[in-house]
Write a structure and sequence with these properties.
Elements lengths: L31 E8 L8 E4 L5 E5 L9 E6 L4 E8 L6 E6 L8 E11 L2 E8 L10 E6 L4 E6 L5 E7 L10 E8 L5 H31 L1
C-alpha cells in the first residue's frame, strides 16, 4: 500500500477536505460516531472492539498479543493489521511510535506520540506526524481524564476539537466486566487515526504500573 501524504493541520481550523493520516478510507465528509466495548477485568490491559452505529465491528484490539518488545496491533474488522504501535515507556518522555500495517520500519512511520504531563488521573499527549521532523510544535494534542474514561483531541496547539470520547451513560457498563465508550469524530478527520490514539491512551495506566514496578526493582537491586 502506498503511503498517503498527511498534511500538517493548521491551528484553529476545521477540515473541509479529507486528512488521511492513516488512510483516505477512514475519512468521510460527515460526523462519525463509533462505540467501544472494552474488557475491564483483564489484568493484562484492555481488549476492545470498535463498532459503528449499526453494530458492525470496524476495529479490534487484543492485548494478549502484547510482546516483550512493547508492540500492539490495531486490526480492522476483517483481521488485517491497520497500524502497529511501539512504546518506549521508560524513555525520558514516554513515547509511542505508530507504523503502517504490521511494520516497525522507520520508513513506515505514520506519527509519534509523546506524553507531556500526567497529574493524578489526567494526562496530555502531543502528536507529531512523520513529516514533522523538528517537533517544534505538535500537529494534534490530546487531553485525557482516566477517572471518567474521557478524552478530547485538538488540532495543533489550539483549542479546536476534532474528536472526543466519553462513557456511554445509556449502557450499563459494569455488566459482564465490560466498559462501553462512545467516540464522536468531526467530518474529514481520519477516524482510524483517532482510534489509534485511544488505543495508546488505553495502554497508559497498565504501562505506568509496569514502569513503577521496574523502577522499584532497580532500586532494590542497587
Amino acid at each position: 500500500m502506498s503511503k498517503a501524504p498527511a498534511p500538517t493541520p493548521a491551528p484553529n481550523a476545521k477540515f473541509d477536505s479529507p486528512v488521511p493520516i492513516i488512510s483516505p478510507h477512514y475519512c468521510v465528509p460527515h460526523e462519525v460516531n463509533l462505540s467501544i466495548v472494552r474488557q475491564i477485568l483483564n489484568v493484562t490491559g484492555g481488549n476492545f472492539e470498535v463498532t459503528d452505529v449499526n453494530g458492525t465491528v470496524i476495529f479490534e484490539v487484543n492485548q494478549r498479543i502484547l510482546s516483550l518488545r512493547g508492540l500492539r496491533v490495531l486490526f480492522d474488522g476483517n483481521g488485517n493489521p491497520v497500524v502497529t504501535i511501539r512504546d518506549k515507556i521508560l524513555s525520558a518522555h514516554d513515547r509511542w511510535k505508530v507504523y503502517r500495517g504490521d511494520s516497525v520500519e522507520e520508513s513506515d512511520l505514520i506519527f509519534s506520540v509523546k506524553r507531556t504531563s500526567i497529574v493524578q488521573l489526567r494526562t496530555k499527549l502531543h502528536v507529531f506526524l512523520a513529516n514533522n521532523t523538528t517537533e517544534e510544535a505538535c500537529d494534534f494534542w490530546v487531553e485525557a481524564d482516566f477517572s471518567d474514561n474521557s478524552c478530547i483531541v485538538y488540532i495543533g496547539q489550539s483549542s479546536s476539537k476534532v474528536a472526543k470520547m466519553e462513557k456511554n451513560k445509556t449502557v450499563r457498563s459494569v455488566l459482564f466486566g465490560k466498559d462501553h465508550l462512545k467516540i464522536t469524530i468531526d467530518p474529514n478527520i481520519d477516524y482510524g487515526f483517532i482510534v489509534a490514539l485511544i488505543m495508546i491512551l488505553d495502554a497508559i495506566p497498565s504501562q505506568l504500573a509496569t514502569a513503577r514496578s521496574v523502577i522499584s526493582g532497580m532500586r532494590l537491586v542497587s
